[in-house]
Design brief:
The protein has about 300 residues and is an alpha/beta fold. It has 15 helices and 6 strands. Strands 2-6-5-1-4-3 form a 6-stranded mixed beta sheet, sandwiched between helices.
Length: about 300
């Protein structure tokens, strides 16, 4: 039975008013994403019940662990997680929980390094990186990127080339093909795209449009390939940003949770078909609900697998 799940974590994407004059997401640059948000998204609270603007370190830690990291440290923490958040991420992340149930997990992002030692010695590690190092034990590096077994965070590898790595550029469509291949080989695959947050922090409307357009090409291919191969897709974020074209900071908007079902033809695989129904059934109201819901979905499918085998 196919039960693969691909989670697209899009940093800095909130649900804002559908006004093309103020919301770049509805300005025509990303029709696939806009359509999904219009018809298939439900709102998830990103404030974590803590005053102030939601931020990445605490938001992503909450998303990946199910623990309210902002409440734990008493504030929203920007950027990279410090020792306290790293400790939580290392002990309680979604990869660890799924792997404890015997599931195969992948963090598909490629790290711009040639060795695991180089990664571990880096002082600034993102929340996703800390979770992957603890839960999977390693990151995907340049050799796997070149073999199509990893995807660079900007999709096309342009930024990697700018850093001096002699890698060939690829299209967002090719990046999506690579990611689909990884998701096919794993029960749970996470991919992080944070150019949306970076562009949202700037005031360059053309840059926002370019980032959204590039992501949209990628997303279109993901949605063309994944469901047909039995891979369900979840798209979510840690906080809002790019949806407010009038500001250059994070927003208080809820973030979207979009679930697109994998289409499975095998008899008895109804659990995988109903991923959307499962995740939309009031289970997810806050960032802290996402990881527990994903773990529950896999556990439920395990049960149905047993039933269908009778
Ligand atoms: Zn940000």
């Amino acid at each position: 039975m196919r039960r693969n799940l691909l989670m697209l974590f899009i940093d800095g994407l909130g649900l804002g008013p559908r006004d093309p004059n103020t919301n770049p997401v509805f300005g025509g640059a990303c029709p696939v994403l806009a359509g999904l948000l219009e018809t298939n998204a439900f709102p998830v609270d990103a404030t974590l019940g803590v005053q102030g603007l939601p931020q990445s370190a605490t938001g992503t830690t909450s998303l990946l662990t199910g623990i309210n990291a902002a409440r734990m440290v008493g504030r929203h923490v920007e950027g990279f997680p410090g020792p306290t958040l790293r400790d939580v991420l290392s002990r309680e992340n979604i990869f660890l929980k799924l792997r404890a149930s015997g599931l195969k997990c992948a963090f598909a992002n490629a790290y711009g390094a040639c060795s695991q030692e180089e990664v571990s010695s880096s002082r600034l590690l993102s929340a996703t990186t800390v979770a992957a190092l603890s839960g999977i034990g390693r990151l995907r590096l340049l050799d796997e990127l070149m073999a199509g077994k990893a995807v660079y965070q900007d999709l096309t590898r342009e930024q990697l080339r700018e850093k001096g790595f002699p890698v060939p550029l690829i299209t967002p469509t090719e990046a999506a093909q690579d990611l689909t291949g990884i998701a096919e080989e794993h029960d749970f695959t996470l991919f992080e795209y944070f150019q949306t947050d970076r562009a949202g922090h700037g005031s360059d409307a053309k840059k926002k449009k370019k980032v959204l357009s590039l992501f949209d090409s990628f997303l279109a291919t993901i949605l063309r390939l994944c469901p047909a191969r039995g891979i369900s897709v979840i798209l979510t974020s840690d906080h809002g940003n790019i949806e407010d074209g009038l500001s250059t900071g994070h927003t208080m908007n809820p973030v979207p949770l979009v679930v697109v079902d994998g289409i499975v033809s095998l008899a008895g695989a109804s659990g995988a078909r109903r991923a959307g129904e499962f995740f939309r059934a009031g289970r997810i109201k806050s960032l802290t609900d996402v990881a527990p819901a994903v773990v529950s979905w896999f556990c439920r499918n395990d049960g149905e697998k047993g039933d269908s085998a009778l």
